């Protein structure tokens, strides 16, 4: 990953050290979000089975929701004077999410894989809430709180497709 040095002039009232730390934190979560966006599309494109259309459409909706959070994350990086590194290449190199099983086809396989990725994403975001708060950047902490709520809701929607034991 490239330097987290501040590249965009800003008059925001956070110190350079805080801004640099927050840009790094946001960048890590940006990579996770971009990875998740494409994991959701992978599932959307390849899922097959009973209740196909409902799950297929859910995946598309979740893709759009995560993509919105990715955009907010990248914009927060810019607000803090950083340069978002949002290419698929950077995301592939730095994402902390589990690798998506490319052989998944059945709905239950996609449910398990998407749930696992959403859980990792939400866990990373919750840690980021604490880090941003401890650094004194409540704006970034609030953004991560918004993302956390959306990730938890998305996981709930996906988990609702699990077959009851």
UniProtKB/TrEMBL annotation:
Q: Where does the Ferritin/DPS domain start and stop, copy by copy?
A: 25-161
Lineage, top-rank taxon, reads Bacteria
Q: Name one GO molecular function term.
A: ferric iron binding
Give the signal peptide range.
Answer: none
Among SUPFAM superfamilies, the record links this protein to: Ferritin-like
Q: Which CDD domains match?
A: DPS (cd01043)
The record ties this protein, via Gene3D superfamilies, to: 1.20.1260.10
Family, as annotated: Belongs to the Dps family.
Q: Which PANTHER family match?
A: DNA PROTECTION DURING STARVATION PROTEIN (PTHR42932:SF3), GENERAL STRESS PROTEIN 20U (PTHR42932)
Q: NCBIfam families recorded for this chain? A: PRK09448.1
Q: What name does the UniProt record give this protein?
A: DNA starvation/stationary phase protection protein Dps
């Amino acid at each position: 990953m490239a330097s987290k040095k501040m590249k965009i002039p800003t008059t925001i009232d956070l110190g350079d050290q805080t801004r640099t730390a927050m840009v790094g934190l946001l960048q890590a979560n940006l990579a996770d979000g971009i990875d998740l966006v494409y994991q959701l599309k992978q599932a959307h494109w390849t899922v097959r089975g009973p209740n196909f259309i409902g799950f297929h459409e859910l995946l598309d909706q979740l893709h759009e929701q995560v993509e919105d959070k990715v955009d907010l994350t990248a914009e927060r990086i810019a607000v803090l004077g950083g340069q978002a590194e949002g290419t698929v290449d950077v995301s592939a190199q730095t994402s902390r999410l589990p690798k998506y099983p490319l052989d998944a086809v059945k709905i239950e396989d996609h449910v398990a894989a998407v749930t696992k990725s959403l859980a990792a994403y939400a866990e990373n975001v919750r840690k980021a809430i604490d880090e941003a708060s401890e650094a004194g950047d409540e704006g970034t902490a609030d953004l991560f709180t918004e993302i956390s709520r959306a990730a938890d809701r998305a996981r709930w929607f996906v988990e609702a497709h699990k077959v009851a034991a």
